[in-house]
Design a protein that fits this description.
This protein has 140 residues and is an alpha+beta fold. Helices cover 15% and strands 37% of the residues. The chain has one domain. A hairpin with a 2-residue loop joins strand 3 and strand 4.
């Protein structure tokens, strides 16, 4: 009976540990290994517009800051893009409008800073592309 209990207990501990590791938040403090994703675009240049980070890997980003420190690895960002005047693009729900893809995949590397933006491909505000417009070492 004790052996069965010990095996069961060890299994629970192992499962809990694996779940905790797999469930680690993609957001980290600046003291942990990280890359930075920044969504600040100074001015609409080359048809590029600001975005706001709503989620990382399906987890809400608290306070929706303009920069986040992320654990290295492949990350899926859920974004909202803004044209001039602050109108959010991806929240368009009028019938007949296509809803733009609001996901951006980034392979975050430690020590790198990524500047992201929405790029208007045509005059149609629904025709946007979310992309990394700068990839530089942190500190530059």
């Amino acid at each position: 009976m004790t052996r069965i209990f010990l095996k069961l207990f060890a299994g629970i501990i192992a499962t809990t540990t694996l779940m905790a590791c797999a469930g680690q938040s993609p957001l980290v403090s600046p003291h942990e290994p990280h890359g930075i994703v920044a969504s600040t675009v100074p001015a609409p240049a080359r048809d590029q517009y600001a975005v706001r980070i709503l989620e990382v890997d399906g987890r809400p980003v608290p306070d929706r800051p303009s920069s986040v420190w992320l654990r290295p690895g492949m990350r899926t960002l859920t974004l909202v893009a803004f044209l001039g005047g602050g109108r959010p693009i991806v929240e368009t729900v009028n019938p007949g409008h296509k809803k733009p893809n609001n996901k951006l995949e980034i392979n975050v590397q430690e020590g790198r800073r990524y500047l992201i933006a929405a790029e208007l491909k045509t005059n149609d505000p629904d025709d946007i592309e979310l992309k990394v417009i700068e990839d530089t070492p942190i500190g530059r």
